[in-house]
Write a structure and sequence with these properties.
Blueprint (H helix, E strand, L loop, with lengths): L4 E2 L6 E5 L2 E3 L9 E2 L4 H20 L13 E2 L10 E4 L31 H9 L6 E4 L10 H11 L2 E6 L6 H8 L3 E6 L5 H8 L4 H12 L5 E7 L7 H14 L2 E6 L10 H16 L4 E3 L5 H9 L6
Parallel strand pairs: 2-6, 6-7, 7-8, 8-9, 9-10, 10-11, 11-12
Antiparallel strand pairs: 1-5, 2-3, 3-4
Helix pairs in contact: 2-3, 7-8
């Protein structure tokens, strides 16, 4: 007998980028090519979700095979988008004032098949009552030409969610949203010293970024500081120790990530050692931390079997 399977992301989570839509951020998720128009893309999304859900209910193999999000059991409820991830390549969301060494989006940010801007898309989503949370991960919002319109709409709709920023520019509306404790900010700091920060970001503004993060922290909102491990650059005790010290100072949470360009290969022995060192410091200082599991996929079995990290 074939066992039905279910994933709560299907029909509930929508990922939109410049070239299409997906049901989740997992590496094996199917991207539906964009028609250039968000209305048509939403129709395609729901049609695909219906088909995917039917196949899972019937126990058929799908592109989701092996995903840790799958659970046994049927799902026959209404498909309602509750969470939206606005990802790279959306017109009006392709601007960035950094030039990070690990960024893989620099060549593709402008490669968009869309007619509608990120603000047009958010206006459309604003008419969808089921939407509760937005993740803004397309370019640097503080330099977007639609910055004020987007943040004002976010405020008026009382959406929750996460705004990915680099904190080089402070913004009062972001601080106001953060103070509601319904919206988080995620800053990929990636360093504990200005020397390493400058090498990674190619911008000399480490102290300014830290000052702005402190101002955001004063709102009492939730701040996530990301550390992307980069072999031979920031995988050293000095940077990690200084980073954790700053996390402690502002009472932030930590997200540990892996170089996106190496997500399909195991960490080196040196990288793994520094990964364990960061985890130890988080635990010793009672800092809440998480890892981006999809990036660590080759290492995940070892990480979990050693009791380093549990869901």
């Amino acid at each position: 007998m074939q066992i039905p399977q279910h994933c709560r992301e299907i029909g509930e989570y929508l990922v939109i980028d410049g070239l299409g839509v997906r049901t989740c951020c997992c590496g094996n998720s199917v991207k539906l090519p964009s028609s250039g128009n968000i209305d048509d893309d939403l129709d395609s999304y729901f049609s695909y979700c219906e088909k995917l859900r039917t196949d899972l209910n019937e126990g058929k193999q799908t592109s989701c095979i092996g995903c840790h999000m799958l659970s046994e059991g049927r799902f026959d409820g209404d498909l309602k988008i509750k969470r939206v991830n606005l990802s790279t390549g959306l017109p009006g969301g392709i601007e960035c004032n950094f030039n990070c060494s690990y960024c893989t989006y620099g060549k593709t940010l402008g490669a968009s098949a869309r007619e509608d801007s990120v603000y047009d898309i958010m206006l459309k989503l604003g008419g969808t009552p089921s939407v509760e949370k937005i993740t803004y991960a397309c370019g640097e919002i503080t330099v977007s030409p639609y910055r004020d319109e987007i943040l004002s709409l976010w405020k008026s709709k009382k959406w929750g969610g996460t705004i990915y920023i680099n904190a080089a520019v402070y913004n009062d509306l972001i601080a106001e949203l953060l103070s509601t404790k319904n919206v988080n900010i995620n800053v990929s700091l990636d360093a504990g010293t200005s020397h390493t920060f400058n090498i990674i970001k190619n911008v000399d503004c480490f102290d300014k970024v830290k000052t702005n993060i402190r101002k955001y922290a004063a709102t009492g909102g939730n701040i996530f500081l990301k550390y992307i491990l980069l072999e031979g650059i920031n995988d050293n005790k000095e940077d990690i120790k200084c980073f954790i010290s700053f996390v402690n100072e502002i009472n932030a949470r930590v997200v540990i990530a892996k170089d996106n360009r190496k997500r399909k290969v195991n960490m080196s022995e040196a990288e793994y050692s520094m990964f364990l060192y960061m985890v130890k410091l988080c635990k010793d200082n009672q800092i809440q931390f998480s890892i981006i599991e999809d990036y660590f996929a080759p290492d995940l079995e070892s990480i979990k079997s050693n009791g380093v990290y549990t869901l």
